Amino acid sequence: MKWLIMFGPVFEIVIYAFFSRYWSEDYKELKPIIVVQIVLYTFLITPLLLWGYYLKH
Known about the structure:
Elements (H helix, E strand, L loop, with lengths): L1 H21 L8 H26 L1
Helix pairs in contact: 1-2
């Protein structure tokens, strides 16, 4: 489960980068939402998940 916490955001960033690269012309209004979601998830949720994981183990 530790690998999922560590690499989950990386997988998400890769998927969203692929999405925004190849379908950005069709979905221009989604690009800022994707960027904000990546930033929030990477810098807020991931440290909380890691902190909770290390407190329990």
